[in-house]
Design brief:
Blueprint lengths: L4 E3 L3 H14 L3 E6 L6 H5 L2 E6 L10 H10 L4 E3 L9 H9 L3 E2 L4 H8 L1 H10 L15 H11 L3 E9 L2 E6 L5 H16 L4 E5 L5 E9 L5 E13 L2 E7 L6 H18 L3 E10 L2 E8 L6 H8 L3 H9 L16 E8 L11 E2 L2 E3 L6 E5 L6 E2 L6 E9 L2 H14 L1 E3 L5 H8 L2 H4 L7 H6 L4
Parallel strand pairs: 1-2, 1-4, 2-3, 4-5
Antiparallel strand pairs: 6-7, 6-8, 9-10, 9-12, 10-11, 11-14, 12-13, 14-19, 15-18, 16-20, 17-19
Helix pairs in contact: 4-5, 12-13
The structure holds adenosine-5'-diphosphate (ADP).
């Protein structure tokens, strides 16, 4: 087992990893920016090292500083959390080159899946169904116009290095292609330093359903069911649930089996998520995330498995303590992402939290670093809390969510709590019939 783990992240993600390390009895070192010096994970970790200024480039993305911190504190493993360097193959590689363990998949898998063009090729080889599209990268507009005839309209021009919904543009007809192609490329160049793009058929009203997989180094590969993540704004998830209200038992078992088989074929190690779009009863692979997901707690709730604990044990060479037939799905779980954002304009609202109260009670979990008096820094992602509820069935989970949202207080800054309270009354949430377009096109558009 590891002697000491360095946590290369911040906020509730750092706290989540810290909790898993504590439960395993592993000492921790946390790195932080000057802006996070007073944060809860910094106070709770055994040791902390300030690695730079507030800008992520100076701190949470500062690989030399993180490596130095890990070396001088005697860490033998690094957990990258979610975001920042979690999907940086070079980081995984250099950690290993310094004799430490990167708690995640191999650099090769991160590299392959991080490039969506390569990811689709790998996924097809592993037997996953794809959204129809260009066979690879599309380097010129002329080629895009030629390939578009085969893909059909509407289509999406997508960045190979894309993430967080950026570098993705719709061309409704052939007339829009030139503009979509140019703007996807320039957005991708600005956001990811890589303007490689590809084409994909634009599905008109799918659901986003993803499958959690986990694999150890002893040949055990297990899927932990699906998560329904169709409630999105600007391709960003806001509300997730497990299981998906759309799938039958048979569809669930089938996509789980396909995802686990593909994971095994790839020789993948650790936790990962296969993301699919689902429309008219068909699944289409869109990407694989080679890390923990923000919405992992809903899977933990319905399986009773601590994903971060398993992730650490797998990285240490351990064997999964379960096989597929041991996995039982218990009840229903929902996660609300509470962001420091205005609930109508979605403008970030960093600032001081003068009053804070987290919800509680049976089946309620809150992952957050908030406390009364906490100053939310303006430099990072606006996610400030995850509210996760679990019930014996969907009805009970929704009822518990209503109670939890009523109890939750974050004042005076505006947050998405207000949006989640309104969402709960929407018929499409109550009956689970929403799709990826519903939030923006119907719910937020209604008045
Ligand atoms: P990112 O890595 O930027 O999150 P994804 O490929 O995972 O990009 O897609 C994010 C979201 O964008 C999906 O959940 C879905 O809402 C939408 N999307 C992606 N591909 C398509 C497609 N081919 N058709 C329709 N919507 C899509």
């Amino acid at each position: 087992m590891f002697k000491k783990i360095l946590i290369a992240n911040r906020g509730d993600v750092a706290l989540r990893v810290l909790r898993a390390c504590k439960a395993l009895g592993i000492p921790t070192v946390i790195v932080h920016s000057t802006a996070d010096a007073q944060s809860m994970p910094v106070k709770l970790a055994d040791e902390s090292v300030c690695i730079g200024g507030p800008a992520a480039a100076d701190s949470y993305l500062n690989i030399p500083a993180i490596l130095t911190a890990a070396t001088i504190t005697g860490c033998d493993a690094v957990h990258p959390g979610v975001g920042f360097l979690a999907e940086n193959a070079y980081f995984a590689e250099i950690i290993a080159a310094h004799g430490m363990t990167f708690i995640g998949p191999s650099a090769q898998h991160i590299q392959k899946m991080g490039d969506k063009v390569e990811a689709k090729i790998t996924a097809a080889e592993a037997g996953l169904p794809l959204v129809p599209g260009s066979p690879g990268a599309v380097p010129t507009l002329e080629e895009a116009a030629e390939l578009a005839k085969g893909v059909g309209f509407p289509l999406l021009v997508k960045a190979a290095s894309g993430g967080g919904g950026r570098g993705m543009k719709v061309a409704k007809t052939a007339d829009d292609l030139a503009e979509a192609y140019a703007s996807a490329r320039s957005e991708a160049k600005a956001a990811f330093g890589d303007d490689t793009v590809y084409l994909e058929r634009y599905l008109d009203n799918p659901r986003h359903i993803e499958v959690q997989v986990i694999a150890d180094s002893h040949g055990n590969v297990v899927h932990l069911g699906e998560r329904e993540c169709s409630v999105q704004r600007r391709h960003q998830k806001l509300f997730e649930e497990a299981p998906s209200p759309a799938l039958s038992q048979q569809e669930r078992a089938e996509i789980g089996r396909i995802a686990a088989e593909a994971t095994a074929k790839m020789g993948y190690l650790g936790v990962g998520t296969m993301e699919f779009l689902w429309q008219d009863g068909q699944f289409f692979f869109i990407e694989m995330n080679t890390r923990l997901q923000v919405e992992h707690p809903i899977t933990e709730a319905i399986t009773g498995i601590d994903l971060v604990r398993e992730q650490i044990l797998i990285a240490a060479g351990g064997q999964l303590p379960f096989t597929q037939k041991d996995i039982e799905f218990d009840g229903h779980a929902i996660e609300c992402r509470i962001n420091a954002e205005h609930p109508e304009t979605f403008m970030p609202t960093p600032g001081k939290v003068a009053s804070f109260h987290a919800a509680g009670g049976p089946g309620v979990r809150v992952d957050t670093v908030l406390y009364t008096g906490y100053q939310i820094p303006p430099f990072y992602d606006s996610l400030i809390a995850k509210l996760v509820v679990h019930g014996a069935d969907r009805e009970q989970a929704l009822a518990r969510l209503r109670g939890a949202l009523d109890e939750f207080v974050v004042e005076p800054i505006p947050t998405t709590l207000a949006l989640h309270r309104r969402l709960l009354d929407a018929p499409a949430i109550q009956d689970g019939s929403y799709t990826i377009r519903w939030l923006e096109e119907t719910f937020l558009n209604q008045d």
